[in-house]
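Worked Example 4.2. Consider the chain below.
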Amino acid sequence: MAQNQAPNVVLIVVDDLGWVDVGYNDHTGVFHTPNIDALAAKSAVFTNAYAGAANCAPSRAVLMSGQYSPRHGVYTVNSSERGNEKTRKIIPEPNTPLLDDSIVTMAEMFKSNGYTTGTFGKWHLGEDPKTQGFDHNVAGYTAGHPNSYFSPYNMPHLTDGPDGEYLPNRITSELISWITQVKEQAFFAYVPYYTVHTPIQAIESVKEKYLSHPRIRDSRHATYAAMVELMDINIGRIVRSLEQQNLMDNTLLVFTSDNGGIRAIAHQDPLRGGKGSYYEGGVRVPLVISWPKKIKAKIDATPVVNADFYPTFAKLIGADVSNQILDGADLSALLLEEKPLATRNLYWHFPIYLQAYSPIADQNRDPLFRTRPGSSMRQGNWKLHHYFEDNSYELYNLESDLGEHVNLAPYLPNKVKALAAEMQSWRESINAPVPTQANPKYDAEFTAKYTEQRLLKTKGKK
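Applying the procedure from the previous section yields the following structure tokens:
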């Protein structure tokens, strides 16, 4: 491919990989990701990168549509009525489980501009991504995780391999084979690995290396660390294949995650919370963007969100998206010319419930829920959370309090008022639903007793 043509695009989205779960961000020395670290050293690394939502399906819907959640209504996986009904104070907004066909996906944008498109791994937004813009689909359907990472997989759109074959290895082989076949034309490869989502399973010989690590807590933690290493090995395979086929110089390669890590499996310190939480541990993700000879190696602290990929890719390939509603920002001038991005707010809206994994380990506001209905926003270093059940606010300064430990809302009422006004204006502009109807089944006495039981049960496991 001539060097003056629009780039190939390889978008790698690892599932449930936390911000600190890659070597270049890891403060514990547990995670071994030499291939990702090597790529990061030659690329733009964004330290304030965010997912568009704190769990799988809504984050992917934001990514593929370029639109914030209220526009497409995908807020969670399956029902919005999560957790015990007697502990929910209000009636949550109904959830839209799949991305509507009326939305022009990122894949459809590439396809309409002459690209061949392939997806390799988790889709989660419909029955078959080939109806939503992809020419080629390997293993993508409505499910959010495999029954097993070892063949036989018993998955649609993927034939079983030899017994014991490891799914991330197979996905990577399928990707490399496809690129080899289509490389004479421009291609968009979406690589949403199922790993490192549950079930926590890894090749035993790799897991064994971690069992004696001084910072490994238990066998599950060791297995998770092995999953991360095996994921990294496959990232290395992709990069080497692109280099061997002389494709690397004209390929824009993006590496990121769909949301934060599950804190009960891998602690996200210094970030608070994890997957499903709108504290930093649930939405801040690793992000590496590579395009050799085009994008300089740098550490960039600009706050960005995965909704930004759609308009950025469109600009880079010359696609006209002027008639589409896109909430993300075009990052191309920031990437290619190092021009600062215009100041803006980032928003998250979650008008539903998401039950806790672990009342203590989750580090959330409420022991029963990773998230109760609310909205969040980031403006500069300020992070505001608004909870609908009691119309309360939390305010944090991320520059001095990255872990969101000290709520400044009681001390800075004017700042809260100003940010809350902007948040409300945004909600009105996007028609974001704010649930207010009281849940007649809510029981305060039951909630108190149930919370105590959950906490005592969790402590008893430690």
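The longest helix spans residues 219-244. The mean pLDDT is 95. Compare this with Example 4.1 before moving on.
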